[in-house]
Amino acid sequence: MNLLRLLLVLSEERSVTKAAERLFISQSAFSHALNRLREQLGDPLFVRTSQGMEATPRAQELIPVIRRSLGQLERGLQGGSQFVAAESARTFYIGAVDYFEFLALPRLVSRFKTLAPNVRLSVDILAEKIQDTGVESGQLDVFVGIEGLQHVPHSFNKRTWLTDRFVAITARQRTDLPARLTLRQFLAEPQVHLPAVISGADLIERWLSAQHQSRTLATIVQSYAVGGRVVASSGYLMCVPLRIAQELVEMLPLRIIELPDGAPELTLTILSHSLYDHQADIRWLIEEISQCHLMGS
């Protein structure tokens, strides 16, 4: 590459002395390199004339090709070290649990509208089944999952995104329920349930199982938004993370009730694969996700 660059500089300077100075090498080193190119290409390339070093027809054919190729190569080599969000038209593919889509996606889209207007987000909340293979193959850029409920292979890097505590929501007219439930009161109430992960593993269920207790699940839903509407119309309880509950009570006639002492917390993590997460665009995405729970709604 350095040898080819000599031709570009010499075509611009038309002087071996000036070209060598521009490249910070000696004149003899420049001449030696030029002779190597002449031998390899079987052409004089540059000939001394009254106007300076003149490119031969062969060199004139090569110079625009070399200039274009070197420019593309330099841009390609720089591509891994920088990501210009404002200029990118990339699509990011994110696998996630419903918590991420409900809480983070609206905030990310709003932020991307300003910072990266041509970047697109595709979120798959059913991606747990392809979590490992999807991220490893590049189908998913990152996966946002629940700590302790999902297997994380050694080839993945894991970053804690946030921790939230569970509360219950119920219809606003359920004034018969206290601000904090006892375990007996909690178990007596029919409940709406959103499975945390496709496998069925659930932190609330684990907490109750450890105490040899179980609750009555009246309805199973697939999203917090639907669960909130069911709770508002039925008066059932639903266990949700606090940040989700705060969003839902702004949208629906609901109230928040504290769970019995000892109720678990929810920790979410951002999973990426060591094959890809050194890339500037993936690092940028992870940083944006990491910060989005701190943004306003």
Overview of this structure, please?
By secondary structure, the chain is α/β, with parallel strands linked by helices. Helices cover 44% and strands 22% of the residues. It has 11 helices and 11 strands. Strands 3, 4, 5, 6, 7, 8, 9, 10 and 11 form a 9-stranded mixed beta sheet that branches. It has a two-stranded antiparallel ribbon with strand order 1-2. β1 and β2 form a beta hairpin. α1 packs across α2, α1 crosses α3 and α2 packs across α3. The protein is rod-shaped and about 100 Å long. The two termini are 51 Å apart.
Give a topology summary.
Blueprint: H1 2-13, H2 16-22, H3 27-41, E1 46-49, E2 52-55, H4 57-79, E3 91-96, H5 98-115, E4 120-124, H6 131-137, E5 142-146, E6 156-171, H7 183-188, E7 191-193, H8 203-210, E8 217-220, H9 224-234, E9 237-241, H10 242-251, E10 254-257, E11 265-273, H11 280-292
Parallel strand pairs: 3-4, 3-5, 7-8, 7-9
Antiparallel strand pairs: 1-2, 5-11, 6-9, 6-10, 6-11
Tell me the Rg in angstroms. Answer: 31 Å
Give the overall form.
rod-shaped
Strand content: 15-25%
Helix and strand sequence: HHHEEHEHEHEEHEHEHEHEEH
Q: What can be said about this structure in brief?
A:
The chain is of the alpha/beta class.
Give me some keywords for this one.
297 residues, two-stranded antiparallel sheet, alpha/beta
